[in-house]
Specification:
Order of helices and strands: HHHEEHEHHEEEEHEEEHEHEEEH
Distance between the termini: 56 Å
CATH superfamily of the largest domain: Periplasmic binding protein-like II
Structural class: alpha+beta
CATH class of the largest domain: Alpha Beta
Number of helices: 10
Oligomer: single chain
CATH architecture of the largest domain: 3-Layer(aba) Sandwich
C-alpha cells in the first residue's frame, strides 16, 4: 500500500487544490494542509507553490507526481489482474482538445465511447490555449501540431492536411490565384500567429509572407470570413471538408499545401502502466481517425 501522504499529494495535484481534494477524501482543508506540509518536511523539498488563486508544482513536485502516478497505475493494474478486471476501463478521465475540432470531430462520437466504457467518468475541456498536462490536470490532450512536446508519449492519429481555399463569390470578384506570387495581390485571411504560411509545393517548401485582411485571434472567425467571400485562407480539411462538399468553398492552387509535418496527436504523460481508461480512449480515437480520418473520405481531394 502506498504512503497515505503520497496518495494525498497526488489527489491534491489531480483535483487542482487542497479544498477540492479534501472534499473528495472527506478531509478538512486544515488537515490536508498539515499533511502536505508534513510530507514536504519529511522529503526536505518544496512540492507545491500555493497562492490564493492557483496551485503550481515545483520541479521536485513535478517529478514526484509523475513517479507516483506511475506507481498508483501499476498498483491498480496489479489489483485488477488479481480480481480479473484488468480489461475494464474505469475511474476519472480528463481530456482536453482544441475547441472547433472537439466540437466537430470528437463530441458527436463521445457517447459511443461512454456506452462501451460505462465505468469511466469522462471530463472534456475544449480550449484553443496550449494545455499543459500537469497544470491542467489532464490525462490526455488532443493536439494539432508539428511537435507534440518534449518528454511526452504521443500517438499520431492523422496528418493535418491544410489547403488554400476561397468562396466562389470571392473568386468571381477578384479572380483565382494561379501562382504563389499572385497571392500578394489578394486578400489573405489568417488568425494571429498563423502567418507566414509555410507551404510545400512541387519544388519544395515555400513561405508566403503577408498580413491578414482582418486581424483576429479567432480561427473560427477566419473560416466564417472565408465562407462569406472575404478572402483566401489556409484551412485544415477537418475544418472545411463539408463546405467543400457543398461548394461553399473551393480549393485553389492544389499543388501547394501546408506542411505534412503537422499532425493530429493523442498526448499523455509517460507512464509504464497507464490507466486502462487512457489506453481505451486512445484506441477509441484511433478507431475514429486511423487510417483515414472521416474528413478525407469525401473523395474531393
Amino acid at each position: 500500500m502506498m504512503d497515505p501522504d503520497h496518495e494525498l499529494f497526488v489527489r491534491v495535484v489531480d483535483e487542482g487544490g487542497l479544498a477540492a481534494a479534501g472534499r473528495r477524501m472527506h478531509v478538512s482543508p486544515a488537515m490536508m494542509s498539515k499533511r502536505l506540509a508534513r510530507l514536504e518536511e519529511r522529503l526536505g523539498a518544496k512540492l507545491i507553490h500555493r497562492t490564493t488563486r492557483r496551485l503550481a508544482l515545483t520541479p521536485a513536485g513535478e517529478r514526484l507526481h509523475a513517479d507516483l502516478r506511475g506507481i498508483l497505475a501499476a498498483l491498480d493494474e496489479a489489483e485488477r489482474r488479481v480480481s480479473g478486471a484488468s480489461a475494464v476501463a474505469s475511474g476519472s478521465l480528463r481530456v482536453t482538445a482544441p475547441t472547433s475540432f472537439g466540437r466537430m470531430h470528437l463530441a458527436p462520437y463521445l457517447q459511443r465511447f461512454l456506452d462501451a466504457h460505462p465505468r469511466v467518468e469522462l471530463s472534456v475541456d475544449l480550449s484553443d490555449d496550449f494545455a499543459d498536462l500537469i497544470d491542467s490536470r489532464a490525462d490526455l490532450a488532443i493536439r494539432i501540431t508539428a511537435d507534440p512536446g518534449p518528454g511526452l508519449t504521443a500517438r499520431r492519429l492523422a496528418t493535418n492536411r491544410r489547403i488554400l481555399c476561397a468562396a466562389p463569390a470571392y473568386l468571381e470578384r477578384f479572380g483565382t490565384a494561379e501562382r504563389i506570387a499572385d497571392l500578394k495581390a489578394h486578400r489573405l485571411l489568417a488568425a494571429e500567429g498563423q502567418m507566414p504560411w509555410r507551404l510545400v509545393g512541387p519544388k519544395g517548401p515555400v513561405t508566403v509572407e503577408g498580413r491578414s485582411h482582418v486581424r483576429t485571434n479567432s480561427s473560427e472567425l477566419v473560416r466564417e470570413l472565408a465562407l462569406a467571400g472575404g478572402g483566401i485562407a489556409l484551412r485544415s480539411l477537418w475544418d472545411i471538408s463539408e463546405a467543400l462538399v457543398r461548394g461553399d468553398l473551393r480549393q485553389i492552387m492544389p499543388a501547394y499545401e501546408g506542411s505534412a509535418d503537422v499532425g493530429l496527436f493523442a498526448v499523455q504523460l509517460p507512464q509504464a502502466n497507464p490507466p486502462r481508461s487512457i489506453s481505451a480512449f486512445v484506441d477509441f480515437l484511433a478507431g475514429l481517425y486511423v487510417p483515414t480520418p472521416p474528413w478525407e473520405r469525401t473523395g474531393l481531394l
